[in-house]
Amino acid sequence: MFGTRRYPNCVLSLFPGLRKQRIRLRGFFLFIAFFASAAVVSQPSLDDPDLAPGKRSEIIRQQEDLWDMRKETSPVVSSRWDLAALLPRTSVSIRNDRFEQVYSGGLTLEIPAGTFPGAETEVRVIVLQKPADFLLAGIALELPNGHLLESSGMFNLEFRSPNGTRMQPSRPIVARFLSPKKNADVRMYKRETAWNEAPGKVESRTSSDCMPFELRSEDSALAFQSFPVNPPPGAPRPRLLDVSFTMGQQPDPASSEKNAESSEHNGNGPMQQVTNPANPNPCGQMEEGPALVEWIYRGVSSDGWWNFDTPKPEFTCIKLSEPARSDLNYVAVGVDYLGMSFGQPINGRIYFNVLKNSLVKVVALSTSLDPMRTIGWMREKRTPARTAHIKTNTAACSDFGSLLWQKVEAKKFKDKDAFLALIEMQ
Q1: 208-217 burial by CB neighbour count: b if 16+ within 10 A, else e?
Q2: Would you kindly state where each structural domain of the chain is located, as residue ranges?
């Protein structure tokens, strides 16, 4: 570049001004670099509770530019990560000529009639709603700009024709997800090669007394609900009523009689209280736990991974005390939050970006396919409350300790309960 070009001594002796110009330019660039660094260092701390929201956002943007985060993607795990096979899967066959509801875990899918061609479609679903699920899936929750994500529920969809051909929906599918009410700013993200925010807004539904639930006829109390698109004249029509009761109370008798009268007209017998089979508590209260909220997204347009998420632009970093090993995959998974990060080797150590002031478990898995495989894990620990990033200064990352190591038979990696018990995670 201009200013760093080296001229031969014979040229410098003939034109002494070039030597002075080179010195002045070098000094100028050093001054600019020092000034830029000093400007960042002199910024108020993100950990300051009195920091104004506007100033906080400005500092985060400046840090992104300094770290050059937008040009990076999250680390890619080894192709030998084979724990995803341990995740439970739901497979449901639906009719394409009518509206269908499919349930799996805390997820409800509402599929309009005519979404797929042909007579039937097989819907395959994987739902992640516990910390251990995110570890098994092996998918980091990190945006291309470096920000971490905290999930409120993640799921994978696959659509197949009767002959096994992969299919894509021609109409938007509605996804509803029940999860503990923890975050307010929940958005929908879709994963292609990286996580990106999906178009459209995420809605929420909750109640201080009780979650709404459904009254269905006895014949309609199935794992998925079906409604004919064009039923023949005189055919019975199942009715779906949204109601909400206070926990521990019975429905109003007059209301029950009215519902029963309505059911006589559709020919399906008396109405009964039927909740989502995957979420048997109708009032959305977990035992001695927080209230639930239902997140609703109406724009699911393809198969693949979808995630109800909250971006976390402020986080911290940790490092392991022991030397990094190239034959291992290192992950840090949230224990009191839903999310996972891959470890990054830097100067012979393993570093992680994680949510601050949160419980985290670190696990290291061998990439070997030998009958005996190495595994390392750490009992859950709380991360520091200060803001830090591995690209700012690795010295700012807290030492998180060492792992416990063990050689285990490869068959343990094929048994979900045995594997989770081994690393003390359920």
Answers
A1: eebbebbbbb
A2: 213-273, 315-422
- For 221-238, write each residue's pLDDT tens digit: 333 333 333 334 444 333
- pLDDT attached to residue 358: 96
Angstrom distance (rounded) from CA 47 to CA 32: 28
Q: How far is CA 83 from CA 93, 171, 280, 383, in A?
A: 26, 33, 28, 25
Sequence-ordered list of residues with C-beta below 8 angstroms from that of 134, at least 6 positions apart, any chain: 128, 141, 151, 154, 333, 334, 338, 339, 340
Q: Which residue has the higher pLDDT, 395 or 303?
A: 303
Inter-residue contact 349 to 323 (CB < 8 Å) = yes
Q: What is the mean pLDDT of the chain?
A: 74
| Confidence label for 59 from pLDDT (cuts 50, 70 and 90) | low
Alpha-carbon distance of 32 to 22, in angstroms, equals: 16
E-only strand ranges, 181-322: 187-191, 195-197, 203-205, 213-217, 226-228, 241-243, 271-273, 292-300, 304-312, 316-319
Mean pLDDT computed over 259-267: 33
Q: Give pLDDT tens digits for 28-56.
A: 544 444 444 444 444 555 555 555 555 54
Pairing of strands 340-342, 359-366: unpaired
- CATH number of the domain at 315-422, please? 2.60.40
For the stretch 104-156, pLDDT in tens is 989 999 999 999 999 999 999 999 999 999 999 999 999 988 889 999 999 99
307, 189 Cβ separation under 8 angstroms: yes
C-alpha span between 56 and 178 (Å, rounded): 32
Q: Are 97 and 229 in contact (CB under 8 A)?
A: yes
Cα separations in angstroms, 99 against 94, 132, 215, 229, 279: 9, 33, 18, 7, 21
Strand bridging mode 316-319 / 398-399? parallel
Tell me the residue type at 216: R
Read out DSSP for 104-154?
ETTEEEEE-TTSSSSSEEEEEEEEE-SHHHHHHHT---B-TTS-EEEEEEE
pLDDT interval class at 27 (50, 70, 90): low
Distance between CA atoms of residues 327 and 365, nearest Å? 8
Name 77's Cβ contacts closer than 8 Å, sequence gap at least 6: 138, 140, 329, 331, 342
pLDDT of residue 350: 96
Of the candidates 82, 304, 80, 301, the residue with the CA atom closest to the CA atom of residue 192: 304
Contact 303, 158 (CB under 8 A): yes
